Structure formats: structure tokens, C-alpha cells
Amino acid sequence: MSYEFVSRRILPSFRNFRIEPLTGALGGTVSGVNLAEQLTTDTVAELRLALLEFKVLFFRNQELDEERHLALARHFGMPQGPGAIPRSPWNASAATSPARRWPRAGCPSRPRAGCATP
Hints:
By secondary structure, this protein is of the alpha+beta class. Helices cover 30% and strands 9% of the residues. It is built from four helices and three strands. A three-stranded mixed beta sheet has the order 1-2-3. The model has no long low-confidence stretch (mean pLDDT 78).
């Protein structure tokens, strides 16, 4: 696993699909694999290695129903649904108010005169 820019590192090659780096530091677009079909253990192992190497994987133009989407997710761990992350006072208020999640430019994270959110 490397955090060097793509131009300065040797990228791994994969037998079951192709991957094209998206940025210099992370992200890759995967092609040559149909996620709607049953994946072989070799393909899953290579996808896991690709995820470790690129940190973010993009799969373009894939048609997945809910069942196949969950099957794919299970290859990487147990899928988590709503409520899996306990709420704290910070994220409970952030979830209810989009304005609190992204304060206006120049305003501190705590409201003050002139910067109060509606």
C-alpha cells in the first residue's frame, strides 16, 4: 500500500479487471468486471487489494438490483443500515440542519451575530 502519487509509484496489475487511476493520490475506475454476475473468489480478492491500493473504487455503468448490491457489499464486510452509527449531540444536530453542517464562508462553527443560520 502506497500513498505516493501515481506518477511516482508502480501500480499493481490485475488479471480479472482493469483499473485506471483517477487522481494522483487516490481513486480508480474499475472496468472489465460485471458486478451483476456472481464474482469469483479471485476477482473479489483482487478488488479488495485494489481498494487497499486506491482507497476509492468507481464502477461505471453497472446495473445492480438491491440483492446484488448487498451481495457485493458483503464481500467487503457486513453492510450497515441506518442507525448503525450511534448519535452524539454533535451529529444529531448536524443531521437535522443542513445549514449547521456547512456554515457560510467567514462564519465560525458557533453562531454569532450576523452569521446565524435561518
